[in-house]
Queue: 4 jobs
Job 1
Amino acid sequence: MSSNISVSKGVFVFKNGFSSTKNRSKLKRRDENIFSNHLWYRVFYTQWRDIETKLHIINTEKFSSTLEGLIKFVHTNCDQKTDDIPTVVLLTGVNMPDHKEQFTTLSKEIKENITPHCVTLQGQDCQNLKHLIENMINGFINNEEDLINFSDVDQESAYIKKAQCTFSVLQAWYENLYSNNSLLNYSGVNSPKSQKSLANRKVLVVIIPDLENCNEAVLQDFILIIHSYLNVLPFFLIFGVATSLNALHKALPYHVSSKTNIKVFSSQPSTVYLNNVLENVFFTDHCAFSLGGMVFSLFTDLFLFYDLSVTEFIKNYKYSMMEHFSQGNFTALCCYNHNIHDILDQFTHEDFESIRRLYSFRDLVEKESSFKKRVELLTNDDYLKKVVQVKVSMLQEYKHFLHIFLRCLYILVKDLPKTPLGRQIRELYATVTSKTISDCPHFKECFQLLNFLSKENLCLKLKNIIATIENNLFVDENDSKLTEVNEKLKNFLKKLNF
């Protein structure tokens, strides 16, 4: 070996614009599934996608009133220079598992409508002051949304290491970002030029969703430090409190809380949120899948006595749907009424045989009086297809009237003394789907109590029932059964001269 040849040779990699296809292949496979070609999975996927869309709408509406007041408070404090740190305390209740979604929605709303500078810090980020400050400043400066449009070289130059994240770096970054607004000219705060610059700058919002999990001493020092920079860096704090305001008073003594301007907001309780989800999603005709009374009672008990998490309740509901549909293509009959014919057209002979193995099919055959039709049910797939289509349509119609019946009965019994059938519609649903309601002693007790109602209270309940029925008639004007019931109730009110 020559003396001027190294034993080891280096390999150097140069970027030549090559982009890996790994990420692209992941995107292509994201929506693929090993069950994608199965009929039952396609029906399940379509139904759950519709449910998720409705849940997203409800989740957005859930925080609308709270967010409206909160956003208004932020806007008001953004337009003026204050000596105290504007602070929002959001009382979220003990429903810890759902806090993540709530603050994710809040952060998104702030970034879209108020300021792009919004950082969320978890409790584990607040155990050490250095760690807390580095994570906060890193979140502001190295925002992925701000760096996404840069090239690789620009990203490397713009990116700042976490160890280099200090308040002086944050101040320099902020001044450079809004250099055209003359932010450093604070000598004449009341001058028109200064007021215009204050209006144009964007606040730095720091969200801490779980105040109880933060180190109190670290949090106190953090607030005192950012208060000292308030004349050059417009901070805004948002704290999430799961228990009560006592936790805030304990974490922030007077010498710290006096540096803040605190506004308290309360979010919707998780029990109210669950009732809203049930009444507007799962107890409607838009959800073809329904839980039995015992399983539903189990899920509600887990919610009430274990975690108070609506997210976990929805997951349990989804797992129940998955278990049901995964039994085979015959479970695809759990669908919307207008899709039954198309789904039955895709059934194979084996799918019809799966239907014949159901316990309910045995009852159907035994109730058929004609021997010839019994044989047809057992041997003729085309005949079975017609019968199944009729029976599933009848089932969907029954569910439609069940949901209306639930709402009407709930209006009658929800405020009776001792509430024999429960205070919430979910309790009534569990009873109705687990036993014959008319044979239930509590049902008979409710109607005995209704006999003691005054004429005014009874008529008011009947008017609310009529309004509920007419809302359903607005959706389906050709529903003759509902129309008949509605007319009978109106005639009864006329007899009462109300």
Job 2
Amino acid sequence: MVSTAFFTTALSAFALACVAQVQAQDVANTTIAAFEAASLEKAGFLGCSTAPRKAGDRRKDKSQLKYATYNVEFLFLQGLGRLSCPGSDCPWKNVDMAKKHIKQIAANLHQLDADIFQLNEVEDCNVLNALVRELHALGDDTYKPYLVKGTDSTTGQNSALLTRVDPSVDLQRSDATVDVPVANSKCPSSPDDTLSTEAGKSLSKHFYTTFNVAGFSKPITVVGTHLLAHPQDNRRCVEREGQATIVAQIAQDALDQGNHVIISGDMNDFSEDVPDRNNNMPISNVLGIMTGTSFINVGEKVPQASRYTEWWDKNKDCVYELTEVTFYAIVRYAQ
């Protein structure tokens, strides 16, 4: 019998971002030309979606499987999307700052010590390899990176894995699309009592794969995703519900095959049934769609007072306050 532990984290990265923004004032006058000279020579996108022929298991304790999801906030080195990052469009104004961020994320991961990390806001496998090197410097050489390129060309962000247990199949993506609003939408109507409609919405940042982990009676399918931001925006509400519908279908297909299933990531929304520390309420049915009747939100296993994963510095004073925390990073599990 293998126990399974789930936890989520995002606070360290957001705290680091705030510090970085303060530090960035020291480099605010750096010219674009100087930045370009200091930046990496762009090597292009590097993927690492292929599962090994023989999956390894490098867990320190094979009596348990510890799983975590972590938004690592623009874990970038090159700036392969349309945004300037490192640069003016993210907290890391130059490559040195980006490298310091990678080092801090490695320290956080080392402390958390999960067997499988599902990461979000990752550029590519070049930066994941840099993260692995930092972990090796901390004395841990048990992790391998996996990432399949998404379709978010604006930010260049992707969802990824850093894991001690290798997947048994390559990382995959779904090309499915949905028309919005979906049938079970809870998004607010516009003033004329209608919802904006749009056909063929897809899911830009996600992957799914399957693990065969010793001690489990069935394979474990993992669906990692990062949904559209701004949980109180009416238009994005219907789009995010569409994305959630695609996630739910991927998960249900794996469940129908007899697998255990984990859905994790940055959902950018709130739960009506499992409220966070500050009782933030959704305007959407995003988490309801993904939970359905087959899944549980593991946030319910955490006392409400401790139920938060994200700090949004609403007044931009760089002062951490518990009234500014929310529960965005969700793990959903079905046996």
Job 3
Amino acid sequence: EIAKYFQQGDIAYTGKIEPINAEVIMAPYKEAITTAYNEVFGYYMTVDENGQPVKAPTDSLSWNELKNQYQWFEVGTVGMKGDYSGYKLVLVDIACDGPCFSPNLYRFLWNDLTDELVFLPQYSTTFIQEWNKPLFEKRDTTGVAFNNVELPDELSLPQGKEVVRKALENSNFLRSDSFKVAFTHPDVGDVYFVSGSENPSFGCFYVQAPDGSFARYEYDPGFFAIDGDSIGRFNDGLNGLVDGTSFNLNADYTYTVGGCGITGNCYTIVKADPKNLTLAGKTDAGGVEFYTVKDPIENASAATGATAEQIAFAESYKTYTSMYQWKVEQEGYTLLTFDEYVTLKPMLYWQDPLGRWSTLSHVDVKPLAECGKPVVYLYPETPMDVQVKVEETVFTKTIPEHGTDGWAVRAYPGGAVYNYGDGATYPYLFWEGVSKPAVSLDRGFMVERDDLEGFLNDALDQMGFLAHEKTDFMEFWLSRMLDNTQHYFFVSFVGTEDMNAIAPLSITPQPDTLARVFMFYHPTDTAFYVEPQVLNPVSRYGFNVFEWGGTSSIPWHE
């Protein structure tokens, strides 16, 4: 059934998502795309008997092998809309280059009588793979707007007391078993959340359009005003909240996030029992109540009979002392004692309108968004001078030293880099740093502890890691991951586009291909369902730059 919002508008939806044979709709383009693809992937990188990267030719792929990368669907027809009246609205899901957790969705108008395809960039993924450019040459330049293609910017929650706002168009495609109905909206129909008690994306809402695409919505409790300040009041006055100490949420608190700017979507949902919490304050506007852990204990554990909330608080203090050690060593920072940590109110619990618990972290002690050992490999076709700069706010470590202008090096085809700054040669460029939160992810893999090594081996192979890159990755990450005692790991990989948003990489001369793969993992004792992520090989041709790194929801220990 087509939801009310989409029933009246410029597009007459069929109510079905009908597959289209790629052989039919792409007939005018298949020769050009096949040629372009084989030019890009005419060789692959391997290693010789000395372990040095070398080129090896690949077998050319035929159109019959390539066409499976394109999944086309007819979803509706354009009504009275100028020159496009009667055109079919079609959508294509194109396989990703490297890891991706949001689909590459592109919308076109199709005249099935003349085979004309008109690309609609205003309603599509912005990134276009090099070999697919022939498909996108004819595009709408009029800026035509359809009033029922995109979902509304805001939706009211049940009882109409609060709203959720759209955060990401085309976040998912086609519904899976991980989506459960949260409530039914009178205009857009069923509103979903992702099931699983510890899923890092659990705080989001999802709505499906008639073309099969989803938009992700986020609830905004009003903690962080865009203009002005959001003020709260602690329950510490003579008359409780009436004359309690005021505080500025914008300046003092933030949503609890993961590392390196990578985290679960929206706010993280946590388990909490109200009887183990104490009312600590509330917001002046909206009256959202905040709670702190009752009777925190520094060495809380299950063996001492501590509550789950006390244990979580004690773990947060351990996390703080571990992650801020680099500030002690490099900046002379003084760590807070446990009593000082308690007084600061580092964790504030709150409930969303559906009764789910989440937390805010005090900015002075929040987990740092650290990127763990990103390494950059340079593979020019001939020796060349290269300037590389990571646009980071704070570096915790770089090898060789990353100056104000970055690294100035001489790069060689085998991957070695000679650094002009210190006159030494390195196998790669290394950096660790703290990034601003930028990317939310909601798909990946649930991996049992005993299967972790095999899973990582397979995943890195699928993404096209070279042998020495894979060895470097496994040597750094496997032991650190297994230092955690949990039985499961939620693992997801972030690709080039998203890493460019977290920590932009400036390279001169510009490489022919840049591939960035970052892993995010979340140790957990409770397995939960996650939407499987698509892993494809990264592109490697011409002057190729490859980078890998990772981070965790829980800091690792050196």
Job 4
Amino acid sequence: VDNKNDFIKALEEFSPDIILSDHNLPTLNSIDALRIVRDKGLKIPIILVTAAMSEEFAVNVMKGGAVDYILKDRLQRLPAAVISTMEKFRLENERQEFLDDVIKNEALLKETESLAHIGSWQSDLLNGITKWSEETYRILGYQSGEIIPSFENLVKSVHPEDKDYVKKISADILIGLKSRKFNFRIIGKDGAIKHIRSELLIERNEEGFPIKITGFNQDVTETSLAVEELKSSREQLRALAAYLQNVREEERTAIAREIHDELGQVLTSLKMNLTLMDKTISSNETISNKKELSDEISSMKMIIDNSVKRIKKIITELRSEVLDNLGLIPAIEWQIEEFNKKSGIDVGFNNLCGEVALNKDISIAVYRILQEALTNVARHSK
């Protein structure tokens, strides 16, 4: 093309790999060509071809965007200049694409670190330079660049109770470990305590000496607090269950005592009265149906005896005197023996622990578990 309009139209229709511009065209000189390409934001290398050019002008056009210039009396240089320019431009494009990828990856890494609350840092042990990611600053409660990114400042933020632990792990990894994962707490700039899950990676030279440490710190405060709350809730549930069990045992004891003291005495008195009545009837000559009355009284006394046995069984189920007086092992042996007699099912007990020293609440719980298990055996064996 030899004029501005055709040049602009050509650039709109296709994108050339390189532009050769004759500086002395009356309707499109090299200065115009450089300006048009620059204004359109195109990255196309331009080589000027001219008959003559002062050194000052050559410097200006090179600053304006030309990559090279060829004098017309030296056109034999043109092929080599084109090849060289194309190769340089290709390498420059590759370099720029690489830089763009690096920038994108850094942005993606920052976003990922922010979303996952993971900060990274790296310490070069040879030159003493340490770098922190933006998320590392944020986890510590600082703005990026607010404090010097150093390993010492990382350690300063560690909770006093965890500081020796962190220092020991850091020393261990320098001695011989390749990596290490561990948890600790930090105190942020605002005084807030945060829970951190950390991983350290170490790089060594050919002689095995450490030359670089890379660390990843994840803020797991919310997770740790949730775990602590869950533990606390479970402990509260255990305490509530233990309290309810104690209440049940106290109620069982009170009911057993009430049955023994009240109903037991009533039945005993009733049996004594029947015995006295039987003697009175036997000695009274005016009563004609002594045998029938005596048999009825005997039947009533048998009912009372069976009721007393049933009451004793209920009292034992409510509260085992053997457990209270002799302990868990004798109570287990007695319970199994009674079960064998009543159910006809052969249940054995082999004590491999000898004397067991358990507190009252645990002993009661074990005994109740045994009772429930034997009840289920009897129920499902029918």
